[in-house]
């Protein structure tokens, strides 16, 4: 019989080597550190944007665009959305209608968010507090889509305001 060279058997281990394990720990630490550093500024930005009328208006617009539910019935809306002196009265009507919708159709998370944001907007923007205008603020009833369009136009107008300063003692 011939002699065959003796080969050492290859060892296959299912356990990772210590250097491989260390690499995974370092990778995991980097990923977690990255998540931590990205989430902290987001929290700060969210809190700061809650007191900024333009950010709240932008959020309202996003929610209105995302809402694809159409409601039956008649809804009170401004006849002319460019009457800024009437915005206090119009906003009061919008909020009342949004509250009714969110109460009766509690599965519509977008309308619920718009209702809460509109209420918050009146707290951070004293211009939106209802004032007795010398002008006759006229409203009409319409379908939901026209109500929603009027609300969007008013919110876009408010978003464009340069100033919406808070009064001390509010919030």
Automatic annotation (TrEMBL):
Q: Which domain of life is it from?
A: Eukaryota
Q: What is this protein's record name?
A: Interleukin-4
* The species this protein was found in: Sus scrofa
């Amino acid at each position: 019989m011939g002699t065959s060279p003796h080969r050492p058997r290859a060892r296959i281990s299912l356990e990772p080597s210590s250097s491989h394990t260390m690499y995974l720990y370092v990778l995991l630490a980097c990923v977690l550190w990255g998540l931590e550093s990205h989430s902290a500024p987001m929290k700060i930005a969210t809190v700061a944007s809650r007191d900024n009328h333009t950010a709240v208006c932008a959020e309202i617009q996003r929610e209105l665009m995302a809402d694809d539910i159409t409601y039956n019935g008649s809804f009170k809306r401004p006849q002319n959305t460019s009457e800024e002196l009437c915005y206090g009265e119009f906003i009061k009507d919008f909020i009342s209608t949004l509250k009714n919708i969110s109460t009766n159709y509690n599965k519509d998370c977008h309308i619920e968010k718009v209702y809460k944001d509109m209420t918050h907007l009146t707290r951070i923007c004293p211009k939106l507090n209802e004032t007795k205008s010398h002008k006759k603020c006229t409203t009409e009833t319409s379908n939901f889509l026209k109500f929603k369009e009027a609300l969007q136009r008013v919110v876009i107008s408010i978003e464009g305001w340069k100033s919406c300063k808070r009064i001390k003692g509010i919030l």
